Amino acid sequence: MRTITKTLLVGAGVAFAGWVGWGVYSTRNTESVPYERLRALDGAELRRYPETIAVETTAPDGRVAFQRLFGYISGANRAEESISMTAPVETETGESISMTAPVRTETAGDDAGTVRMAFYLPSEYGPETAPEPTESDVALVTEPRRAVAVDRFSWYAPNWRVERRARKLRSTLEAEGIEPIGDPSLLRYNDPWTPPFMRRNELAVEVAGAD
């Protein structure tokens, strides 16, 4: 019995170490959207983002949205380029591209039953060079240079927690006299297999008068 217990404990330890190792590997091998840190707030911070290119869709739910965008990075684009979420993938029909973190999710307009989701492309891509989607419900968007307020947190991001963090961020901005533009978006930086204690999530909202 002791031998079996010891074997199970060793196996669990190896599995846990492998899980953590995957989290470290996938995080280090995903490019992140660059930004300039302007200043710290109460539990949050202000950032300046450059112009960025994203592929975006609006769908009935997050699962459908993710599948559409995953189709785009899997080759559903005019160049037939395969785009990996964690590392570059070389293909015969195009060059190697890596998807850039984070994945952005937000409620689409006034319809609470739909979501808008976007994958960011690497910084070397612009409006003229990003592969065009082949699906009509997927589009390339250019986000201009902007100031953003961000509240960062770890573990999972269920709706109730996102709403609580959004209220906290709005309260912080109000106390600082900073005006938000629109509603906050949820930014996810890790793939679904990353351990929850290693995950990076952020609530982000564009702001005015941050300089």
Automatic annotation (TrEMBL):
It comes from Halorubrum ejinorense. Gene3D superfamilies: Regulatory factor, effector binding domain. This is Heme-binding protein.
